[in-house]
């Protein structure tokens, strides 16, 4: 859409991501004149790359288990999930001729396996509802009059082809901030919404990367980067205290560790590192075996190995890439024959298999984080409407709020659900504007 200067809308949505597109479409469907202000050249940039380009839409779990993946933010989302949840989202996309499938871990994806199809469907749907979109513009300020938001002052964004300049001031009695967080800034998520919310008097919980790969010291030795350990239990050790744990896959990288387990645990790790605490991961490579059962397994393998060298027996226990690290940290020569392994050697090997220690000294930047922890304080948002408790006419949707979850589709469901509620709430709140227009036209 070309310039919107001088035009008035009922609802303005700042940000055209998952939550923004859903919010705008819902508001327009209820009869509100709705505008999306999107700083990039096209909406849905981040959504197109989510789930490695496949778009993990949600997860097929009941509400109590679902909200447990949000930590202390879970109770805040209970109301909205009872209004618009997994089955509603699936039905929504079915109506858009975008069927879904359930995969491992009960994760739900578009059947086509293409995130681009999700973006295209949302954009087409929102346009059919009457949503207009102003691209290449960012919200510079929210204008306030008599204690309520009344307009958005825009500026051409750096991503647009023209030089940055003042954009139109667009009036509306309701504004939804759906600007996302600070992760993947190349897609447009650069934290603009935090600045806008703070300027309106909202408290911003310190923002940091979430679902982010971790860095280790020393770096993984040669041969380990690229190795994925499956069916591994990983515990976080903060100083000497046991922290959260997760089970599944962990991936060694040139700088440290990643994969679903590392990402899930990264929230606790990042917060501990920010507090200056020592953080280590403890990897249990044999979580299905207790110490006694594992010891019996080792005795059996060693007894049957005879004069076979230990390094040639270990592939039956661990991936070959791990063998040099195992021998180094247990201080056992790989040339030791199985029959020559002493009880003390066996104890160290058994202990290592159940407790491989990895020293975590950092995390990757926002550019590599899947989502953002922190954001607008949930206590200042009404969970029944997503309305600001600080400023009348202001609403929030998606990652801008202080709510982040484990990997697995939870965060995207929260984006769609909060967008659904914010859009409908803003539209209903702007009904006096709708009624006033109808009255001026002589309509009943």
What's the arrangement of secondary structure elements?
Blueprint: E1 11-14, H1 18-29, E2 34-38, H2 45-49, E3 58-59, H3 63-68, H4 74-83, H5 86-95, E4 100-103, E5 107-110, H6 115-129, E6 132-135, E7 137-145, E8 148-156, E9 166-171, E10 174-177, H7 192-199, E11 204-210, E12 214-216, E13 228-238, E14 241-252, E15 256-258, H8 259-274, E16 279-284, H9 291-305, H10 310-313, H11 323-330, H12 343-354, E17 356-363, E18 371-376, E19 381-382, E20 387-388, E21 394-396, H13 410-429, H14 431-440
Parallel strand pairs: 1-2, 1-10, 2-6, 10-21
Antiparallel strand pairs: 3-5, 4-5, 7-8, 8-9, 11-18, 12-15, 12-17, 13-14, 13-16, 14-15, 16-17, 19-20
Helix pairs in contact: 1-6, 1-13, 4-13, 9-12
Question: What does this molecule look like?
Answer:
This protein is of the alpha+beta class and 444 residues long. The protein folds into two domains: 11-208 and 372-440, FAD/NAD(P)-binding domain; 213-363, no CATH class. It contains 14 helices and 21 strands. It has helices at 18-29, 45-49, 63-68, 74-83, 86-95, 115-129, 192-199, 259-274, 291-305, 310-313, 323-330, 343-354, 410-429, 431-440; strands at residues 11-14, 34-38, 58-59, 100-103, 107-110, 132-135, 137-145, 148-156, 166-171, 174-177, 204-210, 214-216, 228-238, 241-252, 256-258, 279-284, 356-363, 371-376, 381-382, 387-388, 394-396. The strands form six sheets. A six-stranded antiparallel barrel has the order 12-15-14-13-16-17. A five-stranded parallel sheet has the order 6-2-1-10-21, with helices on one face. Helix 1 packs parallel to helix 6 (115-129). It is elongated and about 85 Å long. The two termini are 31 Å apart. 44% of the residues are buried.
């Amino acid at each position: 859409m070309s310039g919107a200067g001088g035009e008035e809308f009922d609802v303005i949505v700042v940000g055209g991501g998952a939550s923004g597109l859903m919010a705008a479409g819902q508001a327009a469907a209820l009869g509100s004149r709705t505008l999306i202000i999107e700083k990039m050249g096209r909406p849905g940039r981040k959504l197109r790359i989510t789930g490695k380009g496949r778009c993990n839409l949600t997860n097929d779990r009941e509400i109590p288990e679902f909200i447990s993946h949000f930590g202390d933010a879970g109770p805040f989302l209970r109301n909205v999930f009872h209004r618009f949840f997994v089955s509603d989202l699936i039905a929504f996309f079915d109506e858009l001729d975008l069927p879904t499938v359930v995969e491992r871990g009960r994760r739900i994806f578009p059947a086509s396996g293409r995130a681009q199809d999700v973006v295209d469907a949302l954009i087409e749907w929102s346009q059919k509802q009457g949503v207009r979109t102003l691209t290449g513009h960012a919200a510079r300020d929210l204008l306030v009059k008599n204690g309520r938001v009344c307009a958005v002052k825009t500026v051409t964004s750096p991503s647009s082809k023209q030089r940055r300049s003042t954009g139109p001031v667009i009036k509306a009695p309701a504004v939804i901030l759906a600007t996302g967080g600070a992760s993947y800034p190349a897609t447009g998520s650069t934290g603009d919404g935090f600045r806008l919310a703070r300027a309106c008097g909202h408290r911003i919980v310190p923002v940091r990367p979430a679902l982010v790969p971790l860095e280790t010291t020393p770096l993984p030795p040669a041969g380990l980067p690229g190795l994925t350990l499956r069916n591994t239990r990983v515990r976080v050790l903060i100083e000497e205290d046991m922290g959260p744990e997760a089970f599944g896959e962990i991936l060694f990288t040139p700088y440290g560790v990643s994969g679903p387990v590392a990402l899930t645990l990264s929230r606790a790790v990042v917060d501990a590192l920010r507090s200056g605490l020592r953080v280590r991961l403890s990897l249990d490579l044999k979580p299905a075996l207790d110490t006694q059962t594992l010891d019996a397994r080792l005795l059996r393998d060693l007894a049957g190995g005879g004069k076979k060298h230990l390094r040639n027996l270990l592939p039956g226990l661990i991936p070959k890439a791990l063998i040099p690290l195992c021998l180094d940290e247990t201080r056992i020569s790989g040339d030791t024959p199985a029959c020559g392994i002493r009880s003390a050697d066996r104890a160290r090997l058994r202990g290592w298999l159940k407790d491989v220690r990895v020293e975590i000294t950092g995390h990757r930047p926002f550019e590599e984080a899947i989502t953002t922890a922190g954001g607008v304080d949930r206590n200042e948002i009404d969970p029944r409407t997503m309305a600001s408790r600080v400023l009348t006419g202001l609403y929030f949707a998606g990652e801008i709020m202080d709510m982040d979850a484990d990997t697995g589709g939870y965060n995207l469901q929260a984006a769609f659900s909060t967008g659904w509620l914010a859009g409908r709430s803003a539209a209903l709140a702007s009904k006096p504007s709708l009624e006033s227009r109808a009255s001026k036209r002589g309509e009943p």
